[in-house]
Amino acid sequence: MKSIKNQGQAHCPHDCEPFEVDYWSIVSADQDPDLKSAVLGGELNLVQCPECGTFFHHDGDLIYFDAPAELLVFVFSQKDREKEPELLKRMQHDYGIIKNTLLKQLHMDYPPVSVFGLDALKSILQEEEINSFESEAVAASAAAQGFGVIRLKPSYAREHHFPYYVPAPAGGKEANSYAVTASKVLQGGLKSKLLRNFVDHMSQEGADLPLTL
Ligand SMILES: [Zn+2]
């Protein structure tokens, strides 16, 4: 899926005359990492009112997609917040279409996320950065202690608040072996809430094996 710009009418917060703008309506983050940076920096779809000079975010609908991260976010306009049930229905419909056309070759098997406004999207990406950083620390600690590293399916890891990487179980392939090995890495001095949560989950009786890539 390619990043796409759309045209729309921007409305200045100071009630000036509306004006035409080009704004991003589809952001394909893995293809255009500079657009992802723009979301994080607060510059995406930032426009300036020609009448009073005020800068503001054009509040148009946007789809943010990062294929390797398995992250699909529908960003709705803040002003449509009261129409949420209707929008969610439309999102499921649009998702069905996108999944079977534009993204067919990706075999998407994870649900979309929805938020209102670019600030909410920015918060998701910030959390994503923090979790990726923590996951890399988990991988480094595991490797330093002589364990292999396994990559979890990103959407699964995100949903369960697990790190994106976990230590490969040393001996045995059941869920509890994952818990035991991850515990050893934590005992080695690593501080990771995500890995701690993974251990708690995998040590439960009857826990399913993690979904890995
Ligand atoms: Zn203005």
Describe this structure in words.
- By secondary structure, the chain is of the alpha/beta class.
- It has two domains: 4-116, no CATH class; 129-202, no CATH class.
- Helices cover 39% and strands 21% of the residues.
- The strands form three sheets. The chain has a five-stranded mixed sheet, with helices on both faces. A two-stranded antiparallel sheet has the order 3-4.
- The mean pLDDT is 94.
- It binds zinc ion.
- Zinc ion (ZN) is lined by residues 12, 14, 16, 49, 51-52, 54.
How are the strands of the largest sheet arranged? 1-2-5-6-7
Quickly count the helices.
Answer: 6
Each distinct ligand: zinc ion
Mean pLDDT: 94
β-strand percent reads 15-25%
From the alpha carbons, calculate the radius of gyration and give it in angstroms: 21 Å
Offer a concise description of the structure.
The protein has helices at 33-41, 84-100, 118-144, 154-160, 175-187, 193-202, and strands at 4-10, 19-28, 46-48, 55-57, 62-66, 71-76, 113-116, 149-151, 165-167. The protein has 213 residues and is an alpha/beta fold.
SSE layout and pairing:
Elements: E1 4-10, E2 19-28, H1 33-41, E3 46-48, E4 55-57, E5 62-66, E6 71-76, H2 84-100, E7 113-116, H3 118-144, E8 149-151, H4 154-160, E9 165-167, H5 175-187, H6 193-202
Parallel strand pairs: 2-5, 6-7
Antiparallel strand pairs: 1-2, 3-4, 5-6, 8-9
Helix pairs in contact: 1-3, 5-6
Keywords, separated by commas or semicolons:
elongated, single chain, 2 domains, alpha/beta, binds zinc ion, 9 strands, 213 residues, two-stranded antiparallel sheet
